[in-house]
Amino acid sequence: MHFVNTLGARSTGFEAVVDGTLVATPIQGSITVNNAEAYLASCLAGLGIIQVPRLGVVDLLARGEIVEVLPQCAAPSMPLTLMYANRRNLPRRVQAVMNWLAEVVGEHLAGDGVVSEGVAR
């Protein structure tokens, strides 16, 4: 399976860091999608392996609905960005969401620090 931002684009393939360098290995896939829900649903339907951020599948991994494969071939970490209107005085509700998000993400990533991994059903 392949994930691309724009349908019709070519997938970079399986990404992994080898000796400190990002390596993209072309792989064959029977389906190409451009949204995370379809990508994950395809995996859950048994159509192949996917490479996704751990944070998005931590519950599925815990329940055994998907399993980790090739943990030694983790992709590089992806940034997580929270965008908000630039204001001199940040509203409390925005600060509360920022703090909550940092706590939730921190809990999930504290274990091993791995953000991206290949998973399969």
TrEMBL record:
One of its GO terms (molecular function) is DNA-binding transcription factor activity. Residues 26-104 form the LysR substrate-binding domain. One of its GO terms (biological process) is DNA-templated transcription. InterPro entries: LysR-type_TF_proteobact-type, LysR_subst-bd. It comes from the Bacteria. SUPFAM superfamilies: Periplasmic binding protein-like II (SSF53850). Belongs to the LysR transcriptional regulatory family. This is LysR substrate binding domain-containing protein.
